[in-house]
Amino acid sequence: MFYDQDNVTASLRQEIYQIDRDNERFRSGIAQQQEVLDGLRETVQNYGEERDSLVAERQNEIANKKVEIRRIKGGDYSLLGTNEHPANRLAYWIASFILLLLTGYLISFYASVIYNAFLLDPLVLAARQAQQNIVSTVTITNVQAFPLVYEEHGILGVLFLLTSTFVFITLGFLLYWFSHSKSSVWHYILYIFTFIFDAFLAFEIVRKIHLSQSIVNDMPPWEFSMAFSQMEFYIILCAGFGIYVAWGLLLKYVLEEFHKILPALAGIQRRKAEIARLEQEIREIRQKFAEKINLLLQEIREVEQREVGFFKHAIEQNDGRMSALREKLRNHLQNSGTKAQNLRVHVTSFLTGWCKCIHANQPQEKAMELVKECHSVVNNFYQTIGLN
């Protein structure tokens, strides 16, 4: 109930009061929507923390896998569940490089030797040199074996010369293979066969060398025993059979070391695959939580714009109307007499007596709190009726 001196004052105060109640309702709505927004923001934060936790777990696993890979490369085979001694990687790569060079040497050496032993005709060579006014004899090796065999026999001759060299590569591999057999009979048979084969090649080349020299110089007729007195015979045996044996032993070492490296390579490959899987999981986790967080952020923006924005706009409009009404009420009261002033006098007198009663019946600290609350109520009352 308002203390009104006329209907205009009562109407203005009633309208101000109603607008103030509407604003209270709007502020309550803002508070409710703010609780909703706080809940959504907390959910966004929880999603972010859960995402970071899941990503951190997988990143730690990736770091552990990388450490394990470095340990395996360093020779720690305990991670592989095997008691084998780690391979000597430096020796393995050096031996592999030497094996590659020796393979090239054997191919070129035996290609030259086989050409001289099987395809070269000293008489044809002498006739060709006579046409070109060149004088030379057959040598142990012929670095022009491939061009000459292509010129004389075409592509099939080159194919024969190249594939025939792999007979000795195969013998070297069999030497490694039979070294794992419990019975060493085949092992020794292989050595003997290769030695005899090399001896036959050496014998044939030495014979052709003698024939070639006899065309140019006056030489005694060839006899079987001459081969064993020629240095070329033993050079071919050492350069062929000796290197072939070394190649087979080196192949054995390389393959045995590779057998030791193989579990490490498999273990490293398996851990790299796990790292790739974990990295994929991290991408999927980030994408999944990004979608959830974006949906929540969109909902937050919609609530702020639709609900909170509406309430704030309504409060701003009401505040403008209320200010205008209070100004109108204030002007009306000033032009209407002294009843408003009398109301202030009565309220002040009542408040003063009430405060004295509080101080008389309440402890000092409690009395101060109650008096402060009374003044707040009176000020709100004045503000409501437009007397502030």
Structure commentary:
- It is a single chain.
- With 388 residues, this protein is mainly α.
- It has a domain at 80-283.
- Helix 2 (89-119) crosses helix 6.
- 84% of the residues lie in helices and 0% in strands.
- The protein has helices at residues 7-73, 89-119, 122-131, 145-178, 185-216, 231-335, 339-361, 364-385.
List keywords for this structure.
8 helices; 388 residues; mainly alpha; rod-shaped; 0% strand
Q: Using DSSP, what is the number of strands?
A: 0
Measured distance between first and last alpha carbons: 18 Å
Low-confidence runs (pLDDT<50, min 5 residues)? 1-5
Order of helices and strands: HHHHHHHH
| Rg on CA atoms, Å | 54 Å
Major β-sheet profile: none
Shape: rod-shaped
Tally of contiguous helical segments: 8
Helix content: over 70%
Mean pLDDT: 79
What structural class should be given to the helix and strand makeup?
A: mainly alpha
User: How much of the polypeptide forms β-strand, as a percent range?
Assistant: under 5%
Concise description?
By secondary structure, the chain is mostly helical. It has helices at residues 7-73, 89-119, 122-131, 145-178, 185-216, 231-335, 339-361, 364-385. The chain is built from 8 helices and no strands.
Produce the secondary structure layout.
Layout lengths: L6 H67 L15 H31 L2 H10 L13 H34 L6 H32 L14 H105 L3 H23 L2 H22 L3
Helix pairs in contact: 1-6, 2-4, 2-5, 2-6, 3-5, 4-5, 4-6, 5-6, 7-8
